[in-house]
């Protein structure tokens, strides 16, 4: 069976205080909070989703905010850096925006592209790159106009404990194509125009430690339920232990850990984030799956208030 994923569906990370998380991704980066719900496996914790105006696959970053959790340590078996794409000609705007919020950044380059590297408020490693590919976001918030808005993921840098095995998975199982090799990195490309470039670092680092500021898992795209079933059979045929199907309300999911230590998910594009809210109201209130509705009142008392807000730096 030959299978090719379109690319990244979403990336999920562990962070600290939920309001600080919202202030960074909505207030500073200008992403839309498309869904406020809870961690279905730990309903006393938020699960926050940010993306473009409609939460398109390839633009979605999700967070489990645990204010009291231990800080993680970056290393092998983790996503090292999450890459965001911004429109061509907008990098000067983003430099000024990070300066405005006193966020330190470094300028680097690889594969002929210029990157701006920085960390979010909880230590998650991010970078911005300009690309023509990918549709522009229609969302604007705070000081970020839609013509400068983040389009979605450019890709990710993977830190594998066994780079050769991870590369075999990317090419033979997930159907990505090797498109370059430069210095310590090998680059792979998927079929979509967003969330489509994966750089694997050849140097093996000490094993990372999961915690605040670390990516928990990276999810790949499946077209629909039938495609999802094929992916489970396909991945299992290569000897990976794949979980049963899990209903995540906004997509269906399966999970497996690859030989280099990274936790991967395959998620369906449908039904999407307008599944239980309208596109216009997405993210405006706490949404719960049917099996947790009876606990809504209790959750309302235990979850701290956390909402998107225009930051004071954008009001002056």
Describe the 3D structure.
- The chain is of the alpha+beta class and 316 residues long.
- It has one domain (7-314): Roll (2,3-Dihydroxybiphenyl 1,2-Dioxygenase, domain 1), CATH 3.10.180.
- The protein has helices spanning 18-28, 91-100, 163-173, 225-236, 296-302, and strands at 8-15, 32-39, 42-51, 60-65, 78-86, 106-110, 113-119, 125-130, 152-159, 177-182, 185-189, 197-201, 214-222, 246-247, 252-257, 263-268.
- The chain has an eight-stranded mixed sheet with strand order 2-3-4-1-13-16-15-14. The chain has an eight-stranded mixed sheet with strand order 6-7-8-5-9-12-11-10, covered by helices on one side.
- The protein starts with 7 loop residues before the first strand and ends in a 14-residue tail after the last helix.
- The model has no long low-confidence stretch (mean pLDDT 96).
- GO terms for molecular function: dioxygenase activity.
- InterPro entries: Extradiol_RC_dioxygenase (IPR052537), Glyas_Bleomycin-R_OHBP_Dase (IPR029068), Glyas_Fos-R_dOase_dom (IPR004360), VOC_core (IPR037523).
- This is Ring-cleaving dioxygenase.
- It holds the Pfam family Glyoxalase.
- Keywords: Dioxygenase, Oxidoreductase.
């Amino acid at each position: 069976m030959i299978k090719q994923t379109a690319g990244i569906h979403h990336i999920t990370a562990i962070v600290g205080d939920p309001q600080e998380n919202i202030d960074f991704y909505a207030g500073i980066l200008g992403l839309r909070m498309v869904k406020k719900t809870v961690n279905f496996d730990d309903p006393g914790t938020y699960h926050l989703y940010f993306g473009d105006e409609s939460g398109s696959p390839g633009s979605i970053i999700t967070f489990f905010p645990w204010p009291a959790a231990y800080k993680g340590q970056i290393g092998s078996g983790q996503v090292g850096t999450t890459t965001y794409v911004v429109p061509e000609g907008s990098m000067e705007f983003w430099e000024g925006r990070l300066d405005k919020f006193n966020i330190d950044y470094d300028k680097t380059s690889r594969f002929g592209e210029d990157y701006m590297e920085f960390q979010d408020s909880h230590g998650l490693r991010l970078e911005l790159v300009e690309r023509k590919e990918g549709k522009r976001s229609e969302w604007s918030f705070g000081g970020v106009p839609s013509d400068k808005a983040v389009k979605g993921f450019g890709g990710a840098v993977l830190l594998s404990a066994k780079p050769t095995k991870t590369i075999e998975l990317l090419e033979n199982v997930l159907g990505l194509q090797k498109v370059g090799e430069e210095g310590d990195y090998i680059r792979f490309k998927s079929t979509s125009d967003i969330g489509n470039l994966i750089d694997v670092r050849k140097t093996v680092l000490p094993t990372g430690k999961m915690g605040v500021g670390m990516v928990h898992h990276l999810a790949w795209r499946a077209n629909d339920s039938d495609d999802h079933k094929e992916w489970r059979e396909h991945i299992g045929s290569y000897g990976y232990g794949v979980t049963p199907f899990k209903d995540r309300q906004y997509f269906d999911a399966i999970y497996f850990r690859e030989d280099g230590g990274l936790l991967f998910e395959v998620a369906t594009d449908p039904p999407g984030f307008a599944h239980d809210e309208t596109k216009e109201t997405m993210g405006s209130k706490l949404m719960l799956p049917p099996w947790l509705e009876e606990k809504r009142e209790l959750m309302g008392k235990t979850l701290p208030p956390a909402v998107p807000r225009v930051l004071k730096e954008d009001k002056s």
